[in-house]
Amino acid sequence: MTRSLRTHFTFLAAAAALTLAACGAPDAAPDGEAATPESVDAGVVNIYTARYYASDYAVYDAFTEATGIEVNYIEAGGDLLIERVRLDAERSPADIVITVDAGRLWRAEQAGLFQAAPELNDVLEGVPANLRHPDGAWFGFSTRVRGVAYAPDRVDASEITDFADLADPRWQGRICVRSSSNVYNQSHLAALINTTDVETAEAWAAGIVANLARAPQGGDTDQIRAVAAGECDLAIVNHYYVGRLKRADDPADRAVGDAVDFIMPPLAGAGSHVNISGAGLAANAPNRENAIAFLTYLLTDGQRFFPELTNEYPAVTSANYDNAVLDSFGEINADPVNVNALGENAGEAQRIFDRVGWP
Ligand code: FE
Questions:
Q1: pTM to 2 decimals?
Q2: For residue 25, how far is its CA from the centre of ligand 1 (angstroms)?
Q3: Does 5-143+274-323 carry CATH code 3.40.190.10?
Q4: pLDDT exceeds cutoff 80 at 5
């Protein structure tokens, strides 16, 4: 096997193969000698990830190029991924678990998937403290901001100085947003609960429901398309969906992106709602050293791939990158809440959505 080649297993095949390797089943080393479990695993890192993004594949390739360590990545949806690693327990071949949204990282931590990695303390200093688990179980490596994409010919952006403004009756029949079952909306409302209280958050959610242009449907990109098509005047979306459309190669997609402007209003005065994609060292990582090497790379040379290839912001705020569309969105004044609180408040957020009838 060539160590410079990235291996992509399908989820189940990889889980089976890696479990076998972790159990020390006999295997042939490249020179024909019987391999010990150590030599089978030397030079690899096993990443369980809920992300399917170009930036991540670029990081894997560049990391292998730089270190010779082969990356095995296993992709699955966030909840399935968590369940798989949890059920495999100490037999899990996972070295690193990566998922999207602090709410899911919170669930993964509750399921016992992570261990602290003090070797990363130096490099983690570049990541704002509120984007890391308080006890070091996981950390954000890229961030996204929930904001407002609007039609500049129909919306005066000076009327939106805070997300609270969107609950005003003046926006009746003008707002598009996806369903409340989506974790972005859950974390958004969880952040508002943290900043204010349950009553205030519930009043805001009820106001949004009263102002919807249509029943929630589709993902964030569909909300932006609806604004461009005139179905609504503004949409609540993550910033990178706007960035992706504005930087699209397809002229039709780019026209949709160009039809909207984007702002990042604060949440009840507390700053913009920032969420993360995050990673942590798996509780039973069989290749701990390689995992530390990968996580270190992720927070150093790997940072630029996120803004450049997926329009996310790097979690390391000093990281350099080239993306004029992100630059055009301006400075982020982020809500200083520790993103761990988003998971803690997610249950309360869901109960509010149910009470106000946000489908
Ligand atoms: Fe997304």
A1: 0.86
A2: 39
A3: yes
A4: no
